[in-house]
Tight adherence protein C (Palleronia aestuarii), 322 residues
Amino acid sequence: MNVELLLQTYREPAIGLLAAAAVTCGILVTLWPYLVSDTLARRMRLVTDEAERIRVRERARLKAGDKVSLRREPRKLFKDIVERFGLAQEATDGEMRARLRMAGFRGEGPIMAFLAMRFLLPLGLFAFAAFYVFVLIDLAQPFALKWGICVVAACAGYYGPAIYVKNRIDKRQQAMRRAWPDALDLLLICVESGMSIEGALRKVAIEIGAQSVELAEELSLTTAEMSYLADRRKAFENLSDRTGVDSIRQAVTTLVQAEKHGTSLGQSLRVLAQESRDLRMSLAEKKAAALPPKLTVPMIVFFLPVLFGVILGPAGIQIMNL
């Protein structure tokens, strides 16, 4: 009887409260767009404004860079070292020059600096390691081990410049590989609008600078080479050799064939742009698929001990208190 009396007593107030809550929720749902600001639209406007500022800044930088030579003159110290120790013969190595160009270093200056650093770093690191091991800390180890440490330091100094150049090449290629599909889309639009290939490359070099300065620089150099070389095919081949990116090599092959046989360039660029986007997506999926195996060791080392401590800790405390 008490339960039925309570239900009869509080039934109407409960129904009233539920109705009031439903009405309140309906009003909030209706007025929510007017009460809460649209953060997504504001953020998109901020992103658009920031992209425009970056584009203006890169255009100004590229225009200012047109007045500066991309070739660096060798420093007198490096040049004297190369000439005095007979390293000038290595400066004629075509493979070394090609790798330096792929890393963004052009002219005789970077070649002299590379050869001089490859000569000075082993001597400097060897002397530093010998002073540190034999004098500063007086390592209590056999003489052979001390000598081996010095030799390892000298080897690190010898291979250090080559490793730096390789890392620079990888970073430049990665930046160009990411921006190349967008550059192909812009090139396709410019070509189909009636622009010549020189004007299209010049326009793409200006627009793509906000996304990849490296690619904009290479396209600007290609445009400059096309203006003074007798054969434009050589300019395209130089672009392929300077970048070393497979997708750019495919596009260069297409441009060379179109230049030689007079075939349609628009359809080929459209196919290349689609293939480049698919390749970029496949690389991203490959990295995403490789993430779980890479996380296995950190999870075992850092997460599982903490998890075991949280789970087994209270039980251990209770057992100790028995």
